[in-house]
Amino acid sequence: MVTIRDLMSSDLITVNPELTLRDTIELLGRRHIGGAPVMAGDRVLGVISANDVLSFEAGMPGVPTEQPEMAEWELELPVEWEEGTEAPGAFFSETWVDAGADVAERIQTLEGPEWDVLGEHTVSEAMTRTVCALPPDTELAEAARYMLRNAIHRVLVTERGKLIGILTTTDIVRAVAERRVR
């Protein structure tokens, strides 16, 4: 009988809930994994997956594609600027470090928060809070049924309330391909 313990990965990659989504995606890509448990100390808070990040980003409002009608705008009459007082555009120059940059330069970089949605949001905003976990002595067939029933690609492996491993669909496919599982 093959159990979760036989196939699980115990070398865990975990993420902090305050990690940015950009850093999370870079970590998942570097490690060639599709998701990771979200931990605060030794407590499991949930799981973050590439799909969670994509769903989060897809739910963000997009850039407007149409300019509003001019009739809707209320235009103020220009204010005469008096020398010795603060220039009307000073607010923008002080707010944006790159205010003097050429428009093409601003579009080419992702340094401003207005361009980097993934950099300004954290794992805690996008993660799945439902924790799907099984004990390590669970038979592999039962774990596979559990994963299918819950439509998940990874199940956390816990023992006495402590995270000890993770079993992924890739682990199961690898075991079948290597004929370790029938």
What are its keywords?
182 residues, two-stranded antiparallel ribbon, CBS-domain, elongated, 33% helix
Summary?
This protein has 182 residues and is of the alpha+beta class. The protein has helices at residues 4-7, 21-31, 50-58, 90-95, 103-108, 123-126, 140-150, 169-177, and strands spanning 35-40, 43-49, 133-134, 154-159, 162-168.
What topology emerges from the helices and strands here?
Layout (H helix, E strand, L loop, with lengths): L3 H4 L13 H11 L3 E6 L2 E7 H9 L31 H6 L7 H6 L14 H4 L6 E2 L5 H11 L3 E6 L2 E7 H9 L5
Parallel strand pairs: 3-4
Antiparallel strand pairs: 1-2, 4-5
Give a description of the structure:
It is a single chain. With 182 residues, the chain is α+β, with helices and mostly antiparallel strands. It has a domain at 4-59 and 119-177: Roll (CBS-domain). It contains eight helices and five strands, in the order ααββααααβαββα. A three-stranded mixed beta sheet has the order 3-4-5. The protein is elongated and about 85 Å long. The mean pLDDT is 84.
The rough form would be described as: elongated
Strand order of the largest sheet: 3-4-5
Largest sheet: 3 strands, mixed
Q: Kindly state the percentage of residues in helix.
A: 25-40%
Number of strands: 5
Structural class: alpha+beta
Radius of gyration: 25 Å
Low-confidence stretches: none
Mean pLDDT reading: 84
User: What is the N-to-C order of secondary-structure elements (H for helix, E for strand)?
Assistant: HHEEHHHHEHEEH
Instruction: Based on the coordinates given, report the CATH architecture of the domain at 4-59 and 119-177.
Output: Roll
Sheet-strand content, in percent, reads: 15-25%
Reading off the top of the CATH hierarchy, the class of the domain at 4-59 and 119-177 is best stated as: Alpha Beta
CATH topology of the domain at 4-59 and 119-177, by name, is CBS-domain
Terminal Cα separation, in Å?
A: 10 Å
Task: Characterize the quaternary organization of these chains.
Answer: single chain
